[in-house]
Amino acid sequence: MDRITLFDADVLKEIDYSKGDCKMNQYGLSCESPGEDLRLRPLASDDYNKGFMDLLSQLTKIGNVTEEKFLKRFNAMRDHHGTYYIIVVENTKADKILASGSLIVEQKFIHEIALRGRIEDIVVDDSCRGRRIGQLIVETLLLLSEKLGCYKTSLECRDPLLGFYKKFGFQGEKDQNHLIKRFFH
Q1: Which CATH code fits 9-168?
Q2: Is the whole-model pTM more than 0.85?
Q3: Listing from the earlier edge strand, what are the strands of the sheet with 96-107?
């Protein structure tokens, strides 16, 4: 099977990290230089075999996702060009996915048919936390969101993570509540 990426990797090379709130370039980190033996790139069709689903299981319950189900969902997301931007950090020596995050771009009628970004599913493998990889993932997704023309980008997080996300300029909006209704567990 040929390796296919979720989106064109060139869009990541155009990101200017000096514009980000966390100034990842001061740490020498960027899409092209995420750390020794690491590569930041779009999710690819062969990442199932590189532990992508195992990584996601560190974030939440994933259920029984076979490679066939993974590829079906991957292709469905890829078919919605310009909507799903899932990035991963791969350890090139171990051939293993160590971190991931998603940007979902929603098309709106408001704000002159604007785009809105949502960041979700930020996860860094337990074995490599504290290396600013999570910061690099979030900064990359935020800068990508801005580059794509989103008028705003939001995310949801648990209270203990508020401080982490506030470093990127995220803030609560006055008189706004986030409500959710779950249909299954």
Answers
A1: 3.40.630.30
A2: yes
A3: 38-42, 84-91, 96-107, 115-124, 150-155
